[in-house]
């Protein structure tokens, strides 16, 4: 089976909180894996596919200095979890840095992660000085 992923995905276990953009729906679960493009979240309840969400990924016992705050969109809900595509547009510098470090460290290849990031920026923002 051909791997169609453009981003390296790594196993990573931590708690995350997800809420719909309108604030009506909320869930908490455990991140199963993560990439620069998305997360797979294992949880008891789910938010419907297509819902825009805000995500808080807690890296260190809920310490706000060590969390990834990012927006995303629920792309798939299955028996194994809720897949959320991350939207890096508007992500804060610290959250982006934490996300990159988490993926790089767990992949063991910082160069690959940086290449993926710059390819994403070039394709998403072709005339940007990002």
How are the SSEs placed, and which strands pair?
Blueprint: E1 10-20, E2 26-34, E3 38-42, E4 52-58, E5 67-78, E6 81-87, H1 93-107, H2 110-124
Antiparallel strand pairs: 1-2, 1-4, 2-3, 3-6, 4-5, 5-6
Helix pairs in contact: 1-2
What does this entry look like structurally?
The protein is α+β, with helices and mostly antiparallel strands and 130 residues long. It has a single domain, classed as predicted glycosyltransferase like domains (Thrombin, subunit H, Beta Barrel). It is 23% helix and 39% strand. A six-stranded antiparallel β-barrel has the order 1-2-3-6-5-4. Strand 5 (67-78) and strand 6 form a beta hairpin. Helix 1 (93-107) crosses helix 2. The mean pLDDT is 86.
């Amino acid at each position: 089976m051909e791997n169609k992923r453009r981003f390296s995905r790594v196993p990573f276990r931590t708690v995350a909180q997800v809420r719909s953009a309108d604030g009506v729906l909320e869930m908490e679960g455990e991140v199963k894996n993560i990439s620069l493009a998305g997360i797979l979240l294992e949880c008891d309840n789910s938010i419907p596919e297509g819902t825009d969400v805000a995500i808080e990924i807690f890296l260190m016992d809920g310490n706000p200095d060590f969390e990834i705050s990012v927006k995303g969109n629920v792309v798939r809900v299955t028996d194994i979890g809720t897949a959320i595509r991350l939207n890096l547009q508007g992500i804060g510098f610290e959250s982006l840095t934490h996300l990159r470090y988490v993926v790089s460290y767990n992949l063991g290849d910082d160069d690959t992660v940086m290449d993926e990031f710059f390819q994403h920026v070039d394709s998403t923002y072709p005339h940007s000085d990002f």
